[in-house]
Specification:
Blueprint: E1 3-4, H1 21-27, H2 33-43, H3 51-69, H4 78-84, H5 89-92, H6 101-114, H7 116-125, E2 132-137, E3 140-145, H8 146-156, E4 158-159, H9 179-191, E5 195-200, E6 203-208, H10 210-215, H11 219-228, E7 237-241, E8 249-250, E9 257-264, E10 278-284, E11 290-291, H12 295-302, E12 314-321, H13 322-325, E13 332-341, E14 355-356, E15 359-360, E16 365-366, E17 368-373
Parallel strand pairs: 4-6, 8-17
Antiparallel strand pairs: 1-12, 2-3, 5-6, 7-9, 9-12, 10-11, 10-13, 13-14, 13-17, 15-16
Helix pairs in contact: 2-7, 3-6, 6-7, 6-8
């Protein structure tokens, strides 16, 4: 049944002579996300502040430390925070390295108040902070970490109504220390580039631009491409696996499902009544060999109630029982590939483009869905 969801690097120019080792190290951003945020601040500092603003910032730091010494959270007065904005960052961000987790906890909250968009790089770096925050709130015991609070702040500024906001953990990382937190870092680091920042009553919010993401164009540059290349964006098909209802880890005695979601983020509404194209599946087993499908897969494909192209901004879900479509009996990691080949009648139109599954595996987008069987 249709479900409508309203959406979803650095180039180094080497000019002239080769720089010395020392200058090269100074100009190269550090790999650690938090260190990178400090580096960017040092490269792009805010304008100088007057005496009045300096006094307000000093008061914020003083009150923040006072609350932290009493194991209390601190929030700046919102009007003052909004007026100070990015100018206060040089005074607040050093607190992220304070040994007291309560200081770090309040520091990320204040940065978020000052400038939501600019704070994201620092919040990203704080996701691995395991500093304990424990307190009582209306007779309820709160036991959290600074990193968890940073994740909450990031999530509160993010808006996406489709499946791109799934924080998958790489299967080979499961069980490793902070595997989920590191996976979240990688997801945010990749997707923040495709954010359209909008001012709302709640503050500035990141709306994931699905057209920019699927076209691999950073959001700030998208409008220019959209204007100069309108044909490119008339049809933007995508198919991705929905991971909400089924686990990527199962036993051979459990049912195994692949829930495919088809969407179209194009600007043009496709005409109706196209003939069906070809659905292509390939399952690779733990030994890296292809597993042949059972005759049931053909029946599943024939029973599909829709055929791309999907209407613009609509989504259709297709639940496939892999345990019926394939004989899956050995433990290990499996990869299933899927692609859609449009019919010959569409090959010369914008809807004649073949497309394949896209899945964020915890590190990057790949053209397969992987799962573990034990």
């Amino acid at each position: 049944m249709p479900r409508s969801w309203l959406a979803l690097t650095m180039v180094v120019l080497l000019v002239g002579c080769t720089p010395s080792r020392r200058s090269s190290q100074q100009e190269t951003p550090p790999r650690d996300y938090l260190e990178r945020a400090f580096f960017e601040l040092s490269k792009n500092p805010p304008p100088s502040i007057d005496k009045e603003a300096q006094e307000k910032i000093q008061r914020i730091v003083s009150d923040l430390r006072k609350n932290a010494s009493q194991k209390k959270n601190y929030a700046a007065e919102q009007t003052n925070a909004a007026k100070l904005g990015y100018r206060a960052f040089p005074a607040i961000v050093p607190l992220l390295r304070d040994p007291d987790p309560w200081v770090r906890e309040s520091a990320i909250a204040v940065l978020f108040q000052l400038d939501r968009k600019r704070s994201t790089s620092f919040l990203l770096g704080m996701l691995l902070d395991t500093g304990k925050i424990q307190y009582w709130d209306d007779d309820v015991s709160i036991d959290t970490t600074v990193g968890h609070s940073a994740a909450g702040l990031l999530a509160s500024a993010f808006r996406s109504a489709h499946g791109f906001d799934t924080f998958n953990t790489p299967l080979d990382d499961i069980g490793q220390p902070q595997a989920e937190e590191r996976a979240k870092q990688r997801w945010w680091a990749y997707h923040l580039l495709y954010c359209d920042w909008r001012d709302t009553a709640r503050g500035s919010e990141c709306w994931l631009n699905a057209q920019a993401l699927l076209s691999h164009i950073p959001a700030p540059d998208f409008a220019e491409h959209f204007k100069s290349e309108p044909e490119r964006f008339k049809y933007i098909p995508v198919v991705w696996p929905l991971t909400t209802y089924y686990s990527r880890i199962a036993s051979t005695r459990q049912s195994l499902h692949l829930d495919l979601v088809f969407e179209n983020f194009g600007t043009e509404l496709p005409p109706d009544g196209f003939e069906r194209g070809t659905h292509v599946f390939r399952l690779i087993g733990p030994d890296d060999r292809e597993i042949p499908a059972t005759p049931k897969l053909n029946e599943i494909v024939k029973a599909a109630l829709f055929a791309p192209p999907v209407f613009t901004w609509n989504a259709y879900s297709w639940d496939i029982d892999l345990a019926v479509a394939y004989h899956i009996s050995r433990p290990g990691r499996y990869r299933i590939y899927y692609s859609y080949l449009p019919p010959e009648s569409l090959r010369n139109s914008i809807y004649g483009r073949a497309f394949e599954l896209q899945f964020w595996n915890g590190r990057e987008y790949v053209n397969y869905y992987d799962f573990l069987v034990h």
